[in-house]
Amino acid sequence: MDTLPSLETLEIVCCGDLKEVFPLDPKRQQKREIIRFPKLRHIHLYQLSALQGVCRSRMFAPNLETVKVRGCWGLSRLPAVSGSTSKRPKVDCEKDWWDNLKWDGPEAKHDPSLYEPRHSRYYKKAHLPRSTVLR
After folding, report:
1. What is the pLDDT of residue 133?
2. What's the domain range around 62?
3. Where would one find coiled-coil regions in this protein (predicted)?
């Protein structure tokens, strides 16, 4: 599997035991090939607590438009994209998750500058309130 030519939308919701969406056979896992998703436009992943990755190989999705991720704290990578700064995919996600993603850099078309992150307007970093303890 080095390409999924027809996949346009990947949406998975509440599969708590799912670790990998497209597992590869052991021979391919060692090669670290790039898997191409030429028509993939939307990725929506919700409440997948065990998810570690879509696949173990690097992903390339040149036509990616939107990514929505919530509750997938083990997922650490997004697909590489076309590299066009005028057509950056919008990523709706938790800010803490976004801040912990791993990147390969602009030359690999896998850099945070190639995406447009959007975090909840209700996001607030947890601060400990100043207070006194009453006994």
Report:
1. 64
2. 9-118
3. none
